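Hi all, long-time lurker, first post. I run a small reading group and we've been trying to get comfortable going from sequence to structure in the token notation. Rather than ask abstract questions, I figured I'd post a concrete chain and ask someone more experienced to write out its structure so we can walk through it together at our next meeting. Sequence below, copied exactly:
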Amino acid sequence: MKKNLNLLLIIIFSFFINIKYLNADTPHFIDFTKVLNKSIAGADAQKLLKKKLEYEVKKYQKLEIDLRKEEKSIVDQKKIITNEEYQKKVQALRKKVSILQKNKQKAFNDIAKLRATAKEKLLKALNPIIKSFMEKNKIRLVMDKKSILLGDTNLEITSKIIDILNKDLKSLNLE
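-- Answer (accepted) --
Happy to help. Here is the structure in token form:
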């Protein structure tokens, strides 16, 4: 009887130990896109980038409209001015269009670089947070949600990581 009781206690004890360390062998997942968009620092960076993009789009739309007006004006003058003057104005306009296109491309590339920098900064801040969370919760593997076809929602740690990130990182200081 005592032997059976000891055996039963060992089984129960080993069951609780296995449950305690179940997290260690169970992969968890995080939605990095959600972290990038919903965390305070990430959302702030998204707003800043959107604002910069909208500003550049409006600026270049206005400049393009001005160049179209100038083109129309040159075409309207074609019969009034000499062919040589007309060619000079057309060349000058082409040069302006070329410069505008280069500047526009550079502005949009700069915004893309800033977006990449923001993502890199956020991920750099996120790595130690995830590592610490893994150690505290005895998790051995965290995967990106994009890589998972189906999973138990109890294994998703996104909101917990966002909460910790929001406490630790208020801004990415992109400006």
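A couple of things your group might point at:
Residues 5-23 have pLDDT under 50 and may be disordered.
The CA atoms of residues 121 and 172 lie 7 Å apart.
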